[in-house]
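To the structural biology subgroup,

Please find below the input and predicted structure for peptidylprolyl isomerase, which we are adding to the shared reference set this quarter. The sequence is reproduced verbatim from the submission form. If anyone notices a discrepancy with their own records, reply to this email rather than editing the shared folder directly, so we keep one authoritative version.
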Amino acid sequence: MRTPVLTLLLLIFALITNAQSTYVRLITNKGNITLLLYDKTPKHRDMFLQAIKKGLYNKAQFNRVIKSFVSQGGELDETILEREKLHPELPIQRLAAEITPILFHKKGALGAGRNDNPEKSSYFSQIYLVVGKPQTDEQLDALEKKKDIKFSPSQRTTYKTLGGTPHLDNDYTIFGEIIEGMDVADAINNVTTNRNDLPLVPVTFKAVVLSKKEVQKLNKARL
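Predicted structure (tokenized):
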């Protein structure tokens, strides 16, 4: 049963997301996930769209799945870094961070992966879906002190009800969120993995951009 607070949060999210313009569907072998890409992070939105156009996510995998944390898809860190090591003559490609406090690591958030670089710049070919878990006020208080950040009242409510991974806030760029298919994302996050967090049975996906007609139909269904 939905609580009044949770219902209000979902209504607010719906009103915000309906004002956005770009949607992507992940067609996975576990079901479909529909993503909204934020206009507040235009560089990451366009980066993801370009990667889709180039076919980088035509036969992709969720290749690092950590239960109650995140499900990572696209290229692995090791693959990217090894390629860069083999070709030192080529410039290292990263996308400047677009970190903003109002976009946070709630459950269902879409983030851009990166290595441990001080600029917090993102890879061009790695994404992750946040699953996380509900937080307590004590946990959020400790994170505020440790990271020198401040969670808004609405963020606190979201983290305590829907859950997420707040310890990643202010360190990675969030550039979208799941609006349909969270049950599929949960199923992916619960698959059996090996010691390297790789699913024993591959979880594959293809990313496609929704047409204007599909977006209109989607928004109408969500009203």
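Summary notes: The domain at 23-211 is CATH 2.40.100.10 (Cyclophilin). DSSP finds seven helices and eight strands in the chain.

Regards,
Lab coordination
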